[in-house]
Amino acid sequence: MLRLILTSRVYDVAQETPLDPAPRLSRRLQNEILLKREDLQPIFSYKLRGAYNRIAHLTAEEQKRGVIAASAGNHAQGVAFAARHLKIPAVIVMPQTTPEIKVDAVRDLGAEVVLFGDTYADAQIRCHELAVERRMVFVHPFDDPLVIAGQGTVGDEILRHRLGDVSAIFVPVGGGGLIAGIGSYVKALRPTVKVIGVEPFGADAMFQSLAAGRRVVLESVDIFADGVAVKEVGAVTFPIVQSTVDEVVRVSNDEICAAIKDIFDDTRTIMEPAGALAVAGLRSWAERERITNARLAAVLSGANMNFDRLRFVAERAEVGDAREALFGVTIPERAGAFRAFCATIGRRVVTEFNYRLSGRDVAHIFVGIATRSRQDAADIAAALTAGGYATVDLTDNETAKLHVRHMVGGRSPDVAHEQLCRFEFPERPGALMTFLEKLGGRWNISLFHYRNHGADFGRVLAGFEVPENEMRDFESFLDTLGYRYQRECSNSAYDLFLAK
Predict the structure, then answer these.
(1) End of a domain among 289, 317, 345?
(2) SS3 of 391, please?
(3) Please, which pLDDT band fits residue 282 given cuts at 50, 70 and 90?
(4) Catalytic residue among 8, 36, 45, 47
(5) Are residues 390 and 451 in the same domain?
(6) Angle 277-289/253-267 helices, nearest 10 degrees?
């Protein structure tokens, strides 16, 4: 692998990107933080390296047949850009749910785009069919030695940089191509440098595979950081990662949003979620290890952000940075109660307050409070409880953050036998109506909340009135609906603000 990395042909098209200091983040973490700026590549992602290196090594006969790939993201642009530079045909198969901006970006690079299916898995199946039909060369996004070697040049550039004497390098992990390449190079030349992978909790195939000692296939993946949302890591990448990577750190979506803000504060550039993943992991690891005065590098892997997602990122960044906590608090329903509640909080900043009259005895309020740390949030909860207020910390409650905060006051005295579920469905024109049609009319919908977050999948919270004697049929209906779902009837936010 070291030989393949050193003989890679990435610089026909790729740039040697800077290793920039992050002064604000460095001061906060009391370490010297360096950002490897792969967002500055021509396609705003490191993926160009591996794609071009693979395609550049094709024989003349293979180049004549052309290349094909399945991707809804940066690999698609990498393959299209490389093929255009080498003047060979390229086909990219993308799910029908792919945002138009990504489809247009690939077409603008001269590739033929085939839209098929709702998921990457659907597109991948069609891609392999077309590869056989058209005799085109399939370019894998990560599980190919030449692709891995191309990505490994990132590690070469870090170590050669004048600031390259680092203690650890943090790398986002999807299928494992980037970290396998970086790990191979770094451990061959500087084995004392830690190579640390970072994954979201909802897409942690590498973490689970390393723990099991074999490749684990996830049943489902969270697609917020879609650049790393894979169900199974590579057969080629996995043993390399086993032998070269020190550990894999997992982070929440809120922590990723906070990292996007951190990077913006230092660079005035907006990363996509996967692009900020390494910084989120660096922060988490440095806090856990209580390390200071070290030089740490994080790979910013891409900046192809959908503009519509910025609303969600901004909403979650403060929570992910432990600068905001969310609580469900029960206070007396009487004049002056809110003033007394605020007196208990003291001179803290209230960031959000949601309330609607729902009874004459007590009031349930959804409140956001500015905090300095997670311990500060715990101290607030303790102070509220000591003040006689029943308090539930909702900061890590996904249903509360995605849906309930927008629905406070939605109690109904008329609803009966309500069953609450969260759903995900492919986001494309007409998708919400298709989803509603699949729900059908057998059970009355007693609650419904949907909000577009600019992602490939829509998220819905729905309540159904289901008599006890129809519960078995209802559960069978959920299992055959064809959408990811999660039952939420025992959710504390639902009990406080929406349940009868």
Answers:
(1) 317
(2) strand
(3) very high
(4) 47
(5) no
(6) 100
Q: How would you classify residue 371: left for phi > 0, otherwise alpha for psi between -120 and 50, otherwise beta?
A: beta
Q: Which has the closest alpha carbon to 418: 467, 384, 365, 346?
A: 467
The active-site residue, picked from 71, 184, 209, 301, is: 301
**Which of 282, 317, 352 is the C-terminal boundary of a domain?**
317
Determine which helix (DSSP H) or strand (DSSP E) holds 351, and give its type and residue range: strand 350-354
HSE toward the beta carbon, residue 87, CA cutoff 13 A: 1
Question: Is residue 411 classed as helix, strand or coil in its secondary structure?
Answer: coil
Decide: 79 and 147 in contact? Cβ < 8 Å. no
pLDDT per residue over 189-202, tens digit each?
999 999 999 999 99
C-alpha neighbours within 13 Å on the C-beta side of residue 118? 13
Residue 194: which residues within 8 A CB-CB, separation 6 or more?
167, 168, 169, 246, 247
Whether residue 482 sits in one domain with residue 355: no
Q: Report the alpha-carbon angle 277-279-282, nearest 5.
A: 110
> pTM of the full predicted structure?
0.80
301 is catalytic: yes
Q: What is the CATH number of the domain that holds 202?
A: 3.40.50.1100
> pLDDT band at 271, cuts 50/70/90?
very high
One-letter amino acid identity for 147? V
Question: Quick one: 259 and 156 in the same domain?
Answer: yes
- Same domain for 353 and 275? no
- Both 348 and 363 in a single domain? yes
Give yes or no: residues 241 and 255 share one domain.
Answer: yes
pLDDT, one tens digit per residue, over 68-89 is 999 878 999 999 999 999 999 9
> Can you tell me the distance from the alpha carbon of 76 to that of 159, in angstroms, rounded to the nearest whole number?
28
Beta bridge partners of 425: 458
**Rounded Cα–Cα distance for residues 43 and 379 (Å):** 46
**Same domain as 387, residue 468:** no
Which residues make Cβ contacts (< 8 Å) with residue 490, sequence separation at least 6?
none
Give the structural domain span for 467: 407-497
Looking up tokens 């007196």 gives 343
- The answer to whether residues 207 and 250 touch, using CB atoms and an 8 Å cutoff, is yes
Give the three-state DSSP class for 473: helix
Same domain, 216 and 270: yes
Distance between CA atoms of 89 and 83, rounded to whole angstroms? 6
4 neighbors 49 (Cβ within 8 angstroms): no
Q: Is it the case that residue 97 has pLDDT exceeding 80?
A: no
Element spanning 329, H or E = strand 324-332
- Bridge partners of 353, per DSSP, are 367
**Is 212 exposed, middle or buried, given 0-12, 13-18 or 19+ CB atoms closer than 10 A?**
exposed
Q: Which residue bears the tokens 């740490």?
A: 296
Burial class (CB in 10 A: 0-12, 13-18, 19+), 400: buried
Give the dihedral sign, CA 123/127/128/130: positive
